[in-house]
Amino acid sequence: MASKRVREEEHEGGGKKVKVVEETVVVKEKKVKKDKSEKKEKKEKSKKEKKDKKDKVSTESTPQDEPSHDTESLDTEAQRKAEKKAKKAAKAAKKAAKLAAEVTVEPAAVEPTETTDLDPMASYTQPAALTALPQSEIDAYLTTNQITMTAPGTTYRPALDFAYLTLPKALRAPLSGFSKPTPIQAAAWPYLLAGRDLVGVAETGSGKTLAFGLPAVRHIQRLDAQAGKRKGVRAVVVSPTRELASQIAVQLGPLAEAAGLTVACVYGGVPKDPQIAALKRAAIVVATPGRLNDLVSDGSADLSSAAFVVLDEADRMLDKGFEQDIRKILGATGSAASRQTVMFTATWPPEVRALAASFMRDTVRVVVGDSPDGELRANTRIEQRVEVVEPRAKEGRLVELLHQLQKGAKKDDRVLVFCLYKKEAARVESTLQRRGLKVAAIHGDLGQGQREQALEAFRSGQVRILVATDVAARGLDIPAVKAVVNVTFPLTVEDYVHRIGRTGRAGLSGLAITLFTEHDKALSGALINVLRAAKQPVPEELMKFGTTVKKKEHAAYGAFYKEVDETKKATKITFD
Question: What burial letters (b/e) apply to 2-23, b meaning 16+ CB within 10 Å?
Fold first, then answer.
């Protein structure tokens, strides 16, 4: 005899309730037989006890507490039958539960935190879980990570965790190696995924490539969902150097591959034909401004379908005189209204602001660092030492420093040595090799293949010392550089800050040693200001050169030219 019990379950992912029938078999016959057997046994035992007392039977008779062999066999058989029926009942219940689990439930229309691959049109919507966080927790995150955000219109909270992002499963896989977003990623992603133009001001090594790479891929997916998958370049990333362009292309590779997209890397110093062939297959192009502008001018690159443009290290590109190339490239991509434009920069000078005002709309600005106005400051995690030396003593002192920096347990530490000129870099490389040090170099007199080989040897640890000119001072992500040595001070204090920024990355501490001579005394005042701002000691020998800061001269108009912030609205003047 069996009984049925009905229960209701609410399946996860939807509000629909499903009735599940559970069948429980109750074996009453088993219970009845067992009860009768136990009563009969008790009666027989009590009769035997009375008879034994009365007749005074000897102890050789059958013990009172042992049932007879016939009773025992009957009891065992009944038990076997009962167990068999119980197994059948359990099996039936298990089968019913399995059928209930296989019931398919149509999910209700809710706002998911993870989209399916069939829903690439979903843009960013701030999830309820993020909105529910107390404002004090958000404020603490912004303060701790020194994040300042300026956003016209709709504002978003930083995505403190990857779970707050609306992404297809395929794009979550490349993120699995990271525990949580970096500050620039957390602050920028909500705005970029929502389609906003954005300027990010942050130090190199802060995760900027992924900050713009993920939104670029999502932007292309949404375009393809709207108009159907098509050929042609849909996203452009412009960077100042070949090495940085190559690095960005490698880092974007896993993201693009997960979305079924191809990345092409375009830069000068190598033949054009392979790059032109790669452009025809690419959805994302990473390029230096000079080579990309050449390809656009001769008709080899068509950027008319590009709707997502990134200017990485924008301030450095302007410093190198690429402004006209950048303007031509942006002009080839279409109007600002049909394009999402993203700019990442280490500083926020007037010329960068003017470029942003020309090509961006309703721009969001995210600054990560202790300078909300975007002024350049040295990383406070870097210990800065300045040694005033005689010009001829520099190379001898460099050898001494390298032996000290790689002594004993520190023998495997990576050290980056900066020189000002190509010839100087080649000479220092030869000097160090003659002293028995294993060293590689990158500078403008080397071919692209040689430079890439040297960088790879330094990254992999085959060589522990890399001699470089300022070509490697910006953007390159060389992990675990323990120390930077400036053999010759750069031409500007901005380049100095970017040089020493090769160490102390990803939250780690670093060391920067600068050999300063009387030839560099015109920059002593600016260097002293950087040291003081970072709360670093200022040597007395350096103070003797003076603290005056020389005013910057405009390239065309000289020292009396005044920069105007074009992003500010003009003041209306009324005459009486």
Answer: eeeeeeeeeeeeeeeeeebeee
